[in-house]
Amino acid sequence: xxxxxxxxxxxxxxxxxxxxxxxxxxxxxxxxxxxxxxxxxxxxxxxxxxxxxxxxxxxxxxxxxxxxxxxxxxxxxxxxxxxxxxxxxxxxxxxxxxxxxxxxxxxxxxxxxxxxxxxxxxxxxxxxxxxxxxxxxxxxxxxxxxxxxxxxxxxxxxxxxxxxxxxxxxxxxxxxxxxxxxxxxxxxxxxxxxxxxxxxxxxxxxxxxxxxxxxxxxxxxxxxxxxxxxxxxxxxxxxxxxxxxxxxxxxxxxxxxxxxxxxxxxxxxxxxxxxxxxxxxxxxxxxxxxxxxxxxxxxxxxxxxxxxxxxxxxxxxxxxxxxxxxxxxxxxxxxxxxxxxxxxxxxxxxxxxxxxxxxxxxxxxxxxxxxxxxxxxxxxxxxxxxxxxxxxxxxxxxxxxxxxxxxxxxxxxxxxxxxxxxxxxxxxxxxxxxxxxxxxxxxxxxxxxxxxxxxxxxxxxxxxxxxxxxxxxxxxxxxxxxxxxxxxxxxxxxxxxxxxxxxxxxxxxxxxxxxxxxxxxxxxxxxxxxxxxxxxxxxxxxxxxxxxxxxxxxxxxxxxxxxxxxxxxxxxxxxxxxxxxxxxxxxxxxxxxxxxxxxxxxxxxxxxxxxxxxxxxxxxxxxxxxxxxxxxxxxxxxxxxxxxxxxxxxxxxxxxxxxxxxxxxxxxxxxxxxxxxxxxxxxxxxxxxxxxxxxxxxxxxxxxxxxxxxxxxxxxxxxxxxxxxxxxxxxxxxxxxxxxxxxxxxxxxxxxxxxxxxxxxxxxxxxxxxxxxxxxxxxxxxxxxxxxxxxxxxxxxxxxxxxxxxxxxxxxxxxxxxxxxxxxxxxxxxxxxxxxxxxxxxxxxxxxxxxxxxxxxxxxxxxxxxxxxxxxxxxxxxxxxxxxxxxxxxxxxxxxxxxxxxxxxxxxxxxxxxxxxxxxxxxxxxxxxxxxxxxxxxxxxxxxxxxxxxxxxxxxxxxxxxxxxxxxxxxxxxxxxxxxxxxxxxxxxxxxxxx
Length: 995
Prior knowledge:
The protein is mostly beta strands. It contains 3 helices and 83 strands. The strands form 19 sheets. Strands 2, 4, 6, 8, 9, 40, 43 and 44 form an 8-stranded mixed beta sheet that branches. It folds into 5 domains: 33-129, Immunoglobulins (Immunoglobulin-like); 182-306 and 316-329, Neuraminidase (6 Propeller); 479-545, Sandwich (Immunoglobulin-like); 565-639, Sandwich (Immunoglobulin-like), CATH 2.60.40; 642-988, 7 Propeller (Methylamine Dehydrogenase, Chain H). It is flat, with a radius of gyration of 38 Å.
């Protein structure tokens, strides 16, 4: 039986054996699933933690152990525990929490469960939110470097050079309490009385302001210095009534670029006496760095570079004396850097000196108390050092990027820093003041930034040679419609960055990255703020909602012609290269030519618009429409009552005869006469012999109207009585390529030429050489309407002169180093005059305002919403009342307030005015005003343009131009003082339109 069974498995003849059936498959392996109590983790910065329960369910008999972890957590979000170990049927919990500095974000994470080769991933969304934050940046507009905080009044006073004003700002709400007109203010301090501010200026005066009434008093500084005229930008006030002042040579660099100067001046406010303290030897090299004082006004300190070794000077107001310490006595002495910044504590018992990477603390006997190293080289351009009011800390303000380093003022270590970048930076950031609660106020980018110096410090970088940085804040775009939330893509943003729009949180979305911009119901710009690890960064006016027009470049329009203006505001474009917006003026459609911006400075934009012909005497507003919606600017412009172009050619100069109410228009061989009422040309005044021997290009009328004088470059003067023009006389005078003439109240003409200046007695027709003026130095001469005052420009165009109308002697002040003028205007009674600088292919002008003593007291400042886009036309003149200076450009007439240097109005002309290639000598005025100052006459391309204004110029209401900060490149070269500032101002204006 056994054999048979065995044989049954054997086949014969080599055949195969039968196959054994395979074993049954093993049971399938067990698996598991993961469930979460919530797939969304919603956290608030620094708020309550959220618990997420994790459960494991086995399938098909799974009994293994599962390791559970979470990944993709946002920066600043923690998890506890870091992992779970679970078996089927069991559950565990993760606790998620967001720190107070966690980034505001919406991002995707994951819960990963792993057991051997098995893994299950489950999506987990993270939502980190936070409260809104106060916006630390407060836009003011303009340009400023110094401020003073009055603790008792809770007011911040800011000297605003860019707007010719002192800004008074509430220390609680940061609203602007007052904008006080002040000419070219720069430095500022409070007098010891606690009620009076003293201001230095970028001009030849200092000023005081009553803090209760805001009354301003000017104190012109007499001509000090030796080789170049001085400005007086910085001041410190002492307890004895003395004020120390920097004397800065215009156009000459100082080591402390903005604050320093070549002289130390003292003003005794008790006697109103100015004196030069240093240099005592005119041949000595001297430079006074910026000034610092103790809070009790008893001590002041400054650095001075001089022919001898550089030194520190300490002034005692009690002793009214100076003590000097050689800089080499510092421990260790500086090797590379001169003293870059310094400050005194409240009672003057401690002095801090920063240079290079070192800060040295001294007592007021110059004993070294301690020395410490600080991160990065501390240099003096645009930087500042100050003690906190309680004297416990020393603040060092760095620039580019703005950083405030904090030192312990008792034990001296560097503790860390605060950042406060505002983009785009304008190279003028400056720590203005610190209040008793520890708020630091920084002037930057046209506004004031609050920095809380009681907040936790950011640790200094390990690499002390690197500059501390701020939070990276890429621009999120510029505009959005109202009441619309947007998600936009950004360039790379560091993880953990929190964005805020106008103080409202805007979460980052990880993919992209992208940002969810919150909606707004209010049209206009907001600041964009970023925070990361204690660092902050702000984009001033970085985003705007809806459409918000805020200004138009001209508030007066001609009803004749189709002028081009600039409408300024926000939301005109949905993107940098989006289609131009639609603009309506009143009920008429204008033609939008282009849009400048956004991007140059925030979301601010200007639409260049060509306007249709308007209705005389009417007012109109603007409506701007774009993909962001529409916005209106009501009653923005007024059309003047009338404008006419009287055909003519060959006009060289205009002059209005207020005695006969006639306009005289000089041609090369005759004087044309216009009746301004009928606008008809009358019989011209012939110039005897002009047709053969000479052409005339400059004329003047005597104050009593009895004589008209015209001069020729060929060596002739023509004199006639306008009531009897046929009896004209021609006299020989020295030839000059570009002569000019002015007539005094003694009926004497002063003729200025390149070779010999002469006087001409109009009664006797006697020509007399002016002694001592054989070859200049005058290049242009102008007299007041009453003939009582005569002023001139020198042959270099950078010197101004007062000319005695009787003796013709010249009052010659110290010249300016780099300033120059192309035109000159004198007030009707001679109480002031102005030099006007323009031409050279630059749009607009720089106007300087002088008093009769030849002190330069002010410069004009443009509102950004009214940019000039054409070059200067010669013939600037004062209004009949002397309150307004009228300056013509190629396409417009500017009206400048003489008292403030601010723009009153801009009138667009019906056609291009006639501008000349600016000569090296004098050129005749191309514009004139009637006796009332209500009609403007100007030479234009096809004749004579006559424009009648709504009212006399002197009674014009002062336009309230919307204020904005200047474009960034306006301060790109500030290092050469006022001349560079003016040059930068001119560079920042538009290139003139092609002609």
